[in-house]
Fold each of these.
Amino acid sequence: MADRQIVGPVSGTDVPRYSGPSTFARLPRVDQVETVDIAVIGAPFDTGVSYRPGARFGPTHIRQSSRLLRPYNPALDRAPFSVLQVADAGDMTINPFSIDAAVGEVQEQAASWTSRGTRLVTLGGDHTIALPLLRSVHAEHGPVAVLHFDAHLDTWDTYFGAPITHGTPFRRASEEGLLDREGSVHVGLRGSLYDKLDLADDARLGFQQLTSRQFAVERLDSMIDAMLVRLGDRPVYVSVDIDVLDPAHAPGTGTPEAGGLTSRELLELLRALDGRHVVGADVVEVAPAYDHAELTGVAASHVTYELLTVMAGTATDATHAGAPVSETPTDLS
Ligand code: MN
Ligand code: MN
């Protein structure tokens, strides 16, 4: 591992940032590297949405909006793409007509990486994909603390009889034993609910609730402390629904709710994870048809960059030296 050559992003001083193919942050594709510690992978799927569709175009939009990301992150004093090999694994191939088939396909394609020691940062796609992604993480790590940024609980039971939708992944994950019920937490909750019992039901499933209203009255550092205390020293899976941001910061999403976090708050919360063992992450619900001037795309790309920076701060699993790219398990976009 010490001798291998890490391939970084295409430099904006060699090729203008608006030129060339869109990979996340202009990183190499997986077929251009020998091993992969962290793969950024797209999951274009939005058949699980309950309101506005369009998140199937999220991965393409986030990549296009990530062209201005530069290699050094001053906030954490780290050049994440020099520490570990990060590469863009293209998009998963996902059935747009069957949620059950789609969930199986996401799980299988995610596991083809995670089973070989590569950590994934998955670009959605709607929030349905968090369930199969957590299954693949659980297979390697057992139950993990889920740090869930979202306006919504996503622990509802069924919609129109459907048990797996973008409003249910964390109920199903809790039922399946995928998450650590002592360490999981929602951050940024707000908006109307069906019933007061939704909150009690959610707590029973293993989540602490840190609401957007608390950010209005409490200092950010006390919110960060509360989040970190809840996570403890557990392995963490981070799931970011971009609608955790106020619609002013992220209009391009399917179920917007007024009164959300600012981009600045969200980025600080993510930076506070530095030193924690983040085993995987997703950034979901970016729907570019409702975006303006790449506001949502830029926010999502910067969120992804902070996640990658944090993840690069802890070594990949000791038993692996990054997964060898012996095959191409996904279509390369
Ligand atoms: Mn949401
Ligand atoms: Mn969600």
Amino acid sequence: MAWQRKDLLGLADLSLDETETLLQSAQAFKPVFGRSVKKFPTLRGKTIINLFYEPSTRTRSSFEIAGKWLSADVINVSAANSSVAKGESLKDTAKTLEAMGADAIVLRHSTPGTPNYLAKSCQTSVINAGDGAREHPTQALLDLLTLKEKWGSFRAKNVLIIGDIRHSRVAKSNIYGLTRLQAKVTVCGPATLIPPGLERLGVSVKEQLENELLQKADAIYVLRLQRERQSQGLFPSLREYSKLYGLNSDRMRHTKPDVIIMHPGPANLGIEITTEVAYGKASSIREQVTNGVAVRMAVLYHLVGGGRQVVDLD
Ligand code: CP
């Protein structure tokens, strides 16, 4: 399909065609990972700015690697060391970067909807790298790619998402993407950490992590427990949470032999998932990280390069 979108703001408004196009392009970039020289000329002369108002290791670094492998110039701006610290508004900051010739701004911000606001204010492409608890589209795309590489088709596959769904942008974007690709999604967590109305998105909601849920799952996606929520009294204690929802070797005994274990990172090892499970044979966490680069290459290729066929992606 011919790519039309200027921005990537979320998976909620991405069509099936667009989702599949991004996944196919990401898959086509995967062979580059085995090469000694990992460079395409596709985005030569283009400038990508990573504008991060929240901490990040994976997303920021992988956008930087993806941009550099596509020969773009990539600049990192962290809010703490920019004129934001002197009171400059988000819009002024973005317009300043645009005036310098930025072709894309990759934005992470704690306020939901900020990428949408910037996308309306700027000519340059805006890519959402996580906005509050709303969406994290490239994380979900890399998760979808990881599953697609193993399954081929998502139809009738059961994905169990465990943890703090309410505050998780990763869960929201994954729910949009997985249901669009015909996977069956179940979320499980304390009632205080599950937002109302998820059933309307075609998701099953469970409060208890029963063995039956583990037995049925083809993939189990463990979310980071946002420990800052503990002070808000949304769950009794880390110990209790770990006991009721933590993925450990005991629980793994009830899963399918070929179950896929995923986590977006950074993980609280020993709380939502044990080290043994996070890096055990069923884990795809490292593949998720690798696929983050491929997916971000695909996103930059379509949004900034206009899907220019400088490289043969077939
Ligand atoms: N998964 C994720 O967004 O990780 P970072 O916060 O390290 O980017």
